[in-house]
Write a structure and sequence with these properties.
- This is Nitrilase-related carbon-nitrogen hydrolase.
- The protein contains six helices and 15 strands.
- It is α/β, with parallel strands linked by helices.
- The chain has one domain: Carbon-nitrogen hydrolase (Nitrilase/N-carbamoyl-D-aminoacid amidohydrolase, 4-Layer Sandwich).
- The radius of gyration is 26 Å and the shape is globular.
- The model has no long low-confidence stretch (mean pLDDT 92).
Length: 351
């Protein structure tokens, strides 16, 4: 496992006043799934320990942290059979033990059991404090449905009363963070709603890689661009831990990264190697940037009603009927000028 660091925040290009807060140091672990549970936990624990030794106060782990990615194929049994309890299952237990052992906040992700007739579970991100307590929980909202990522056969979308919770937990220097998951990162609405809720950084636990139906199409550059762009448009730091390695139908492409509100990649992992990333986040850059480019203050929500209309599932990418262009105005009728007043008109005199 390699270490990659960015321990000095780059200059805030739009800063006009001295910051009052110290940078927040965070870590991220990129790993490859291992069918040996002990070896998998050992790799993750090593990454957490190394981030903590470098001074990270929180360490973020990829989507479905302890699991093989399940949704690359249709389920052959009840999908929820492999789900786990939120507070007594192996993922929370691992995160709590690692957080306590290393004195850091640990973020992880799990396939949460949710008893219902459809047999589906929830894709849930958690944040655990150094004392081993659950201090944050967010369920994935948007569920992918395409080849190699048949998540709608395993997960239902989260439906909490507050779908975009922002956590301000003691011990993280007042940082305000959101914890959406993977497919959520492609939706500009998600980043915007978190930003409106006061988030300063978003953590997207991720499991993304090849497209089985399009093996020559590398989506990694697009994936990175859309996340970084959503960060720029909303004044957010983006923390994106992905897995790497071939798990059969999908080969995951790693490339985990941390970006800032100016769109700069502070630190990034390779595509094909386990890594721990550690970076300092100058959280006041959010205000610096949004003061200069006030995207939130100059919105026009009165024009956004179409965003909340139901999706037309039969034609999900169909454009609405175009608005007809207005008819051009008729040319004015010529004014008749009699011989009696022609001389006055030509002289500029009106009667």
């Amino acid at each position: 496992m390699i270490e990659l660091t960015a321990l000095d925040s780059p200059v805030s290009l739009a800063r006009v006043r001295e910051p009052k807060r110290r940078p927040l140091r965070i870590g991220l672990v990129q790993h490859s799934w291992n069918e040996d549970p002990a070896a998998l936990r050992a790799e993750l624990n090593e990454g957490i320990a190394r981030a903590a030794a470098l001074g990270a106060k929180a360490v973020f782990l990829p989507e479905l942290t302890l699991s093989r990615y399940p949704a690359s194929a249709y389920p052959t049994t009840a999908p929820g059979d492999t789900a786990e309890d939120l507070l007594t299952g192996p993922t929370f237990t691992f995160a709590a033990e690692a957080a306590s052992a290393h004195g850091v906040f640990v973020h992880a992700s799990l396939y949460e059991r949710a008893e219902a007739a459809d047999g589906l579970g929830l894709n849930t991100a958690i944040l655990v404090s150094p004392s081993g307590e659950l201090v944050g929980r967010t369920r994935k909202l948007h569920i992918p449905i395409t080849e190699g990522y048949y998540e709608d056969k395993y997960f239902r979308g989260g439906s909490d009363a507050e779908p975009y919770p922002v956590y301000d937990v003691d011990g993280l220097d007042g940082a305000r963070l959101g914890m959406p998951t993977c497919w959520d990162e492609w939706f500009p609405e998600v980043a915007r709603l978190y930003s409106l809720g006061g988030a300063e950084l978003l953590v997207y636990p991720t499991a993304i890689g090849s497209e089985p139906g399009h093996p020559d199409f590398d989506t990694q550059p697009l994936w990175q661009q859309v996340i970084v762009g959503n960060g720029v448009a909303n004044g957010l730091f983006m923390v994106v831990p992905n897995r790497w390695g071939n798990e059969g139908e999908v080969s995951f492409y790693g490339s985990s990264f941390i970006s800032d509100p100016y769109g700069r990649i502070l630190v990034q992992a390779p595509r094909d190697e386990s890594a721990v990333l550690v970076a300092d986040l100058d959280l006041e850059q959010r205000n610096d940037w949004l003061d200069l480019f006030p995207f939130l203050a100059t919105r026009r929500p009165d024009t956004y009603a179409r965003l909340t209309e139901p999706v037309a599932t039969s034609e999900p990418v169909a454009a609405p009927e175009p608005v007809a262009a207005p008819e051009p105005a008729a040319a004015p009728e010529p004014v008749a000028v009699s011989s009696a007043n022609r001389d006055d008109v030509e002289a500029g005199v009106s009667r």
